[in-house]
Amino acid sequence: MGLQEFQVVGRHLPTTNEPNPKIYRMRIFAPNEVVAKSRFWYFLRQLKKVKKASGEIIGVNVIHEAKPLKVKNFGIWIRYDSRSGTHNMYKEFRDLSRADAVKSLYQDMAARHRARFRSIHILRVVEIAKTDDVRRPYIKQLLTPNLKFPLPHRVGKSAATFVANRPSTF
């Protein structure tokens, strides 16, 4: 399930009482444009008195990452429905793009909380610019300068099939 970030813009249909209705814009993470429009109407119906039958979509655009090759830290505020109730949550992820961070969020929520795509509402996604603003220790441990990952048990290639001594793998 590769997610993309969409900007969906819509409004209530013009009426005689309201010839210029208010325009609503949402940033929605979805696998395709059809799901993005559907989620737009789902959220707009909850927030305002507008539904698909009495509204129109003005535009749907894909939002691309400005720097897709730079590793960034993201803070994500979510609200999700569990088996026992509704919960608010803040999570941090380290990824290349906002869409990838949200995809990691869905995988993490499915693994840790058995939460489905339909029960997770993403409230806000923010790129954490300063390293001091990172809250979670599992992201802080990756921010140390000159971070190295040791590679234990390295077995070197030998030219001969049989050698007189054992290889040194440390």
Protein model, in words:
With 170 residues, the chain is an alpha+beta fold. Helices cover 21% and strands 32% of the residues. It contains three helices and six strands. The chain has helices spanning 33-47, 98-113, 137-140, and strands at 4-12, 23-30, 55-63, 72-81, 86-95, 120-128. The chain has a three-stranded antiparallel β-sheet with strand order 2-1-3. A three-stranded antiparallel β-sheet has the order 5-4-6, with helices on one face. β4 (72-81) and β5 (86-95) form a beta hairpin. The protein is elongated, with a radius of gyration of 23 Å. The model has no long low-confidence stretch (mean pLDDT 94).
What are the key terms here?
elongated, alpha+beta, 32% strand, 6 strands, three-stranded antiparallel sheet, 170 residues
Write the SSE topology.
Layout: E1 4-12, E2 23-30, H1 33-47, E3 55-63, E4 72-81, E5 86-95, H2 98-113, E6 120-128, H3 137-140
